[in-house]
Amino acid sequence: MTRPITAGVDGSEESLAALAWAAREAVRRGVALRVVHAWRFQPHEALDAVNAGDADAQARWARDAVAEAARGAAERHPGLDVTTDVLGGDTVESLVAAAADAEMLVLGTRGHGRVMGFLLGSVGQQVLVEAARPVVLVRAGDRPSDEVAGHEIVVGQQGAPEDSAAALGFAFETAAARGATVRAVRAWTLPPVFAYSPGSLKLLDEAGGLEPYEKKALATALQPWRERFPGVHVVEHVEMGSAGQVLLSVAGTAQLMVVGRRAHRTAVGARIGSVAHGMLHHAECPVAVVPHT
C-alpha cells in the first residue's frame, strides 16, 4: 500500500509552510496528502475566554482549521488526494502514530531548536526521536523557488554503507522525484594515533592514505543507490572537518538537507544526534531527519 505524506498543522505560519511543502512533495511523488492536527482539550489555552471550558467548541475549531488548511492545499493542487484527521490523546503518541503510517511526517519549525505550535518544549524532540519514518522540518520562510536546478539535495554519509542507507535512500528518492542533484557529503577528521589498529593501518595503506580511503568509503556507500537511480546526478563531497560544519558549509545551495538519526538514550531522556540537532538549529532549508533502519 502506498503511504501518504502527512503534514501536521495548527494554524501557525510555520505549520502552513510545512503543509505547502508537503503538498508539493505529494504531487511530485504521486501520493496522497494527509493533513492532521494533534488536539487535546486545554482549558487554559483555549481560543478565547468564551470557549475556555468548552471542549466541543475547541474540537469544532480544530476540525474547521484542519479542513480549511486542506481546502487550500487542494485548491492549489487540483487532482491531489487530500484527507484530514483530528488526532486525540497524547500529542507525541498521536504524531508518532501518524508518522508510522506515512511516507514522511512534515512539521513546521521556527528554527533555533524551537518547534512551534502543538510541538512545545521537548515534544518536538520526542517526535523526532520516536518516529519510525522520516520527519521533515520546514521554516515559515520556505520558498518554492528554492526547489530549482542548482539547489541540491544534500545528504550526510558516515560510517559503513549500512549506517547511512536510510538517509541516502530518502535523498535519492527525493532527487529523482524533483530531477535534482544529490550532493553526498562525508566529513572526516584525523583520529588519535593510538586508535589505529594493524588492520585499519593496512586498509589505509592500501587506499593510499586517509583522504583516498574516505573517498573510497563514500563511493562504496553510494554505489547501490547510483545503480537504483541511474538518472540522478551525484556530487561526491569529501572534506576534512566535523560533519556539522561541513554540511552547513554547503547548506546555502541546498533545497533539502537530509541527515540520519540514531536516538541517544540518556538519564534525562532521549536525544537526537549532534549533527541532526545542528542542522535543525542552523540550516535555512527544510531538514529531513531519517531514522536509521
CATH topology label of the largest domain? Rossmann fold
CATH class designation of the largest domain: Alpha Beta
Helix/strand-derived class? alpha/beta
The count of helical stretches stands at 9
Biggest pleated-sheet summary: 10 strands, mixed
| H/E series | EHEHEHEHEEHEHHEHEEEHE
The helix content, as a percent range, equals 25-40%
The number of strands is 12
Query: What are the low-pLDDT stretches, counting only 5+ consecutive residues below 50?
Result: 112-121
Q: What would your notes on this structure say?
A:
This is Universal stress protein. With about 290 residues, the protein is α/β, with parallel strands linked by helices. The chain folds into 2 domains: about 5-140, 3-Layer(aba) Sandwich (Rossmann fold); about 150-290, Rossmann fold, CATH 3.40.50. It is about 40% helix and about 20% strand. The protein is built from 9 helices and 12 strands. Strand 1, helix 1 (about 15-30) and strand 2 form a beta-alpha-beta unit. Helix 6 packs across helix 7 (about 210-230) and helix 8 runs parallel beside helix 9 (about 275-280).
